[in-house]
């Protein structure tokens, strides 16, 4: 493994630990208990920090899933174009055989 890859993994790991530490500190620093309503439903009681971090993670997950839609759309488009290219190459080979046979 190259040094830069090792260094980037180390920095990413430290950043992840820092984010976890800040999240734990935020949850501990906001001990007030609330029970939010979401979509007309009463959710269970939890600390303000717990709910904020939970909804932040839920939003990040939904954002990630929404960002995958263009990726899968492009994959389908690439597959369609590859099939079209294959049909065109077959047609070209057929035409070349017909021209060379004459």
Order of helices and strands: HEEEEH
Proportion of residues in β-strands = 5-15%
Give the uncertain stretches in residue-range form. none
Mean pLDDT: 89
Q: Rough shape?
A: elongated
Backbone structural class: mainly alpha
Q: Determine the N-to-C terminus distance.
A: 59 Å
Strand count, sense and barrel status of the largest sheet are: 2 strands, antiparallel
Count of alpha and pi helical runs = 2
Radius of gyration: 27 Å
Task: Let me know the number of strands.
Answer: 4
Enumerate the strands of the largest sheet in spatial order, edge to edge or round the barrel. Answer: 1-4
How much helix, percentage-wise, in residues? over 70%
Give structural notes.
By secondary structure, this protein is mostly helical. The protein has a domain at 31-101. Helices cover 79% and strands 8% of the residues. It has helices at residues 3-29, 48-101, and strands at 33-34, 37-38, 41-42, 46-47. The protein has a two-stranded antiparallel ribbon with strand order 1-4. It has a two-stranded antiparallel ribbon with strand order 2-3. β2 and β3 form a beta hairpin. α1 (3-29) packs antiparallel against α2 (48-101). The longest helix is centred in the last third of the chain and has 54 residues, at 48-101. The mean pLDDT is 89.
